[in-house]
Design goal:
With 337 residues, the chain is of the alpha/beta class. The protein has 2 domains: 2-149 and 317-330, 3-Layer(aba) Sandwich (Rossmann fold); 163-314, 3-Layer(aba) Sandwich (Rossmann fold), CATH 3.40.50. The chain is 42% helix and 18% strand. Helix 1 (14-26) packs across helix 15 (319-330).
Amino acid sequence: MKVLYVGQYGEGSTSRMRGERLRRLLAPDSFQVIDIERPLHDHSRLVRSLGWRFHTGPMVSAVDRFIREQATGDYDLLWVDKGNFIGPGTVGAIRAKQRIHYTPDTAIVFNRSAHFFHSIPVYDYCITTKSFEIEGYRTKGARSVLFCTQGYDPDVHRPYTPFGQKEGAVFVGLWEEGKERPLALLLEAKIKVTLAGAQWERFVRRYRNNPLLCYRGTGVFGGEYARLLSGARVGLGLLSKRFPELHTTRTIEIPACGTAMAGERNNDTRNIFSEEQALLFSDDNELLEKVQRALADDDYCRQVTEAGSHRIREGGFDYSSILKNLFFQMNLIIKAI
């Protein structure tokens, strides 16, 4: 078997984590990676910003051209991870018996890309982690749509900090106005909050004199990210309000790192967790109440943490288990585990 994997393959990226699991499971004779990080960084910061925001421009054209130039062989399987910058001509030109697209992100109602929309009918399978987008894929001509939850890499996302050394709450993610209020409530309730993510500068300035806020910068990745999650008693799985997100990577990664996950109560999270396995909440006040209890009651917090971690680790939410289930649905043969 010959496999071509297209995606961002930088150290610590979830795309690389999925790619390496794919390589282990299929054990192909040939596994070629086209790492789009290279053409992405050949452009100025402004050009990259415009490309990511509007999914057009010289950076996007360069990525599409780079993929076409590198994909010179005949393949049994083409796997594209988050293919917002690859057009239908390039997808179709790659000589592959089966073409698969996977994205952990929203791609229909947000992160909209004309390149991707036109490519959807060219893929044999489109895999999404967004249940609310399944019908959108079909409307845009997808041949077959598969749904899976977000996942985690057990080599990276694991407990690092003993329970007795954990403290406070942690949130890692992009700033949004709707995410400010719950964090402000925790700080005003004298709860330590560790924060990392882009565009939080204004919020951080507002609380610069509050010693309970620890800002770790615009981003943490890989093992550093997992250690940050593991160091807190409660990890906040706050969701975006720009689109109807129902769960995110943090929903799975937080309990995998041995930390109690506080997440919004909705169809996805209730399908993943029971009320005993996570700190599910319906509004910010309930979030505050549950976080306060988890910080004050060792037994309660430990029980939720252990139950949530067991659910994720034994429930098939690791990337290998997710991929094996997808392979079964696509009739792909697993040669090795």
